[in-house]
Amino acid sequence: MSESQVSVPLPVRLRFGHAAVQHLARQIGVDILHIKGAAVDPSLRPGNYAGSDVDVLVRPEHVPALDRAMRQHGWRLYSTFEYGSPFGHAQTYIHDAWGFIDLHRYFPGIRLEPERAFDVFWSDRQEIEIAAVGCLVPGLAAQAVLLLLNAARAPHQPRPDVSAAWRKASDEQRREIERLVGRLHAEVAFAAATGTLERHRDARDYRLWKVASEGGSRTEEWWARITAAPGVWAGLRVAARAPLVNVDHLAHRLGRIPRRRDIVLEFIRRPLRAVLEAARAIARKAVRR
Fold first, then answer.
1. Exposed (0-12), middle (13-18) or buried (19+): which is 139, by Cβ within 10 Å?
2. How far apart are alpha carbons 103 and 80 in whole angstroms?
3. Which of 49, 59, 157, 280 counts the highest number of beta carbons within 10 A?
4. Interacting residues of 148 by C-beta distance below 8 A, sequence separation 6+
5. pLDDT digit string (tens) for 97-145?
6. Using H for helix, E for strand and C for coil, what is the string for the chain?
7. Euclidean distance between CA atoms 69 and 141, whole angstroms
8. Count of CB atoms within 10 A of residue 262's CB?
9. Least confident of 79-83, 193-197, 240-244, 258-262
10. How confident is residue 254, by pLDDT bands cut at 50, 70 and 90?
11. Virtual torsion, Cα 282, 285, 286, 288, nearest 10 deg
């Protein structure tokens, strides 16, 4: 008798992924909040979109414990905090059954200390059922804020989240969202999402959110990251990383673990690409004039 295989629809698999990580977190006493996708209230989820992966926000001090437990239960590291994004906020894992999960230690755009920001979300948490498992999620206003901050990092893409979470919100809902944005010190990223970023030209992270929300070259992104760093030493540490090869991305591009030769070649190519990007940017500005 031959074995049969059944393809599980992605939305179903994602729901089981939420349930699996919640079950694991509860077993080991780790605080997590499910964000985005299937965890979002239907009123804020245009077209009932469930996303393409599972996202959880973890109490920062609990991140090491959840990381260890996930690796012991079949999740493999896909990209690290260091190389996953310009913000260093999330680590991505993949599981043969549940697919991808992003483990967030903080959320980009929130300048309040990560532990205090998590407490803000945790204090207004709610429980919803996903795949018959009780999963904890932020309150409705917090969900809207997170969707808006996430939309600010999606240049040149449709922003249905902004429409559902902000443009269609009532005056009272907007006031609640703005109060929470203020508590989280997330005004600049929020402005990038809602089209008012130019009001914050003097902010330290203005350039970073300009690139994040509107796009830009890798050189512009790195310069923005340096200027957004909190202090001279932090900026120098970011600058020191700029020429280094993103080994995670290189591995995904090659489809295998990079060899030393691959890393050396990529190290040589990076400044060449930076020069070409800079030349194209100058050319585009000259054309606009």
1. middle
2. 10
3. 59
4. 161, 162, 165, 166, 177, 190, 193, 194
5. 888 999 999 999 999 999 999 999 999 999 999 999 999 999 999 999 9
6. CCCCCCCCCHHHHHHHHHHHHHHHHHHHCCCEEEECHHHCCHHHCHHHCCCCCEEEEECHHHHHHHHHHHHHCCCEEEECHHHHCCCCCEEEEEECCCEEEEEECCCCCCCCCHHHHHHHHHHCCEEEEECCEEEEECCHHHHHHHHHHHHCCCCCCCCHHHHHHHHCCCHHHHHHHHHHHHHCCCHHHHHHHHCCHHHHCCCCCHHHHHHHHHCCCHHHHHHHHHHHCCCHHHHHHHHHHCCCCCHHHHHHHHCCCCCHHHHHHHHHHHHHHHHHHHHHHHHHHHHHC
7. 31
8. 17
9. 240-244
10. low
11. 160
Q: How far apart are CA 121 and CA 134, in angstroms?
A: 17
Dihedral, CA of residue 158, residue 36, residue 146 and residue 108, to nearest 10: -90
Q: At what angle do helices 206-214 and 187-194 cross, to 10 degrees?
A: 30
H or E element at residue 195: none
User: Token pair of 109, please?
Assistant: 């755009």
Rounded mean pLDDT, 201-207: 90
Token readout for 199 is 């009001």
